[in-house]
Every structure is written in C-alpha cells, then in structure tokens.
Amino acid sequence: MCPISEVRQREAQNRLHHFEVLAGTERNRLPRADVCRAVKEYSRPAAGKDTTRASELRPPDVLLKTVCYLVDDVAACPSRQPWTEVYSFVFDRLRSVRQDMVIQRVSGPECASVLERTVRFLLYASYRLCGQPLRLYDPHINDTHLQESLSWLLECYSEGQHQHQDEFQALSLLYNLGSPRALQHALELPHKVRHSSPVQLALALNRAYMERNPVRLLRLAQRLDFLQACALHRHLLSCRRDLLLLYSHGHSSRNCRFPIQKLADILSLECSLAAQLCQTHGIHVNGDYVVFSKGSFTESPSEELQCAHMHKLVDDKQQDLSLSNIIHGIA
C-alpha cells in the first residue's frame, strides 16, 4: 500500500502517522513502520519531481485493496479515536489513491469501485463532522473533493453500465439540490436509470426544493435511506427555515395556536429543538403551542444554532448500520 522507498524516508524523517507505526516501537526516537499498515501519503506535485516512476505507482487492484483497508481497518475501527483524526488520515490517503489513478489513467470497474467508496466516505464525513471546529474539519475542502469525485464517477458511468449507478446518480442530485446542471444531467440519463426508484425519489425532492415546498420535501425525506439522508442533510436547515417562514405567513393570527409537537413532527425534530428553532427565528413559543406572526419572523438564524444539533432525521436512519457496510454499500 506504500512504496518501500517512501516508508524508509518517512521513518528517517519521523513522519509516520501513529496508525502506521509498528507495535512496540512507538516510544523509539524513530518509530518503525508496520509495512502492513503504512499507506502512501498524498504528495503535492512539485516542479522537477518525477511523479510517474512505476515503482511508486500502485496498480488498480492494489488501490482498491488500499481503499478497503482504509475503510475496514481505519475508518470503521471503533478503537481509532477521535474520529476527526481518523477522517484526516483517511482523507489524505484516499487523495493519494486518486492521484495514482489520475497518473495511470485508471478507468473501468475498479476505478468506479474506488470512487464509489470515496464518495460514500466523504458524504458520511460531511454529516458526522458537521459543526466541528474548522481546524479539525473544513466542510469547504470536503465539499470540493466530494464534488470532484462525484463528477469523475458520473463520467465513468457514462462509459458503460455499472451496478450502483442508480444509487450515485440519486446521491449526486440530492447533494446538489436546486442545481440546474445536476437536474439537467439527471433528466438526460438513460430511461432505465432515470426511472429507477432512487432517481425518481431524488427528482421529486429536487422539485419540492425548487418549488420551495418544504412540507413536501420533509415528507419525502422520510423515505430516504441513511446515505441519501446524509447527502440531503446540508439543505435541511434552509428547508426548515423556509417552512417556518411559510407558516409565519399562513398561520399569522393572534388567536391561532399551533401545537409544538405537530410542528416538531413536520420538521423531523425533537420538541425542544423545534422550540429553539422557532425562537431563533423570532417565533413566539407559549408552552405547548407556537404563535406565528409574519411581522416577528427573522430571516437570519443566530450563530448558536448549528445543523449538527438537528440531525434527528438522519440519525434515525442509521440504526444499527455499521460504518463499514455503509461505505461498502452493503444494505
């Protein structure tokens, strides 16, 4: 998984990650590498550096085995904590895998298999690490690499039939709700793919989003599986804001009392969080009821309100799914 020349170089420079260190040598001045756990790190191309030496490039089958190792033995390992560090390590090593694929112009099923696991990992990370400090997790960088991997994967699909194409065409649309480009791509898919259940559901959600129909969107979201909900989750805060704005106009009356429990069910939130969201937007909560007023609604939520606190819709879908099965696409 890592060229021996890089292993020796990083040993000498004391640049081994502790996930790669040979057991029993951790306290050495220069810890030794466990060659079964060392993984080639990402190296930014530099002027004058030869990045195409065959001895340093891993063939496609080794790249896929490397990704499987990163998923099963690192990302999904309960003893690897904190998960922000796990993410940082796996993110870098997956980036190195894609770098090797670009240099070798890898294509076909093995390329798709690597990219599928990469996309699932980055989607899961965008949900799990939502709200983490920027020094530990940068959502913009994660989004950039996720979009690049998705784009490459969809390009692979255009070259032939693949087993998981329906799943990832739907994930692409859900992640990019409201994007004209993503919608056009979905509408131009082959008939069989476009009319598959995942893509049809994603199209319905996208239509509800474009029509600013948050009630329908949240109702349709109940039908998503866990990874699809991860793809959607970054849109949920704005969707809930739109719903409260809609209700602030539609139920604006001094005599109208809207049950907080019913509103929480519509928003897919706990009652306490639904009340907090209402108060953040200037909506008065009186005991078990909400009093809507179009004059009191405030558009911009406070910084105290974080998407990470409102993951119930996504959390409920994970249930007993293991991270390994999620990333490998095993139902």
Automatic annotation (TrEMBL):
InterPro entries: SAC3/GANP/THP3, SAC3/GANP/THP3_conserved. Residues 1-286 form the SAC3/GANP/THP3 conserved domain. GO terms for cellular component: centrosome; nucleus; spindle. It comes from the Eukaryota. One of its GO terms (biological process) is spindle assembly. Transmembrane segments: none annotated. This is SAC3/GANP/THP3 conserved domain-containing protein. It comes from Pygocentrus nattereri. The lineage of its organism: Eukaryota, Metazoa, Chordata, Craniata, Vertebrata.
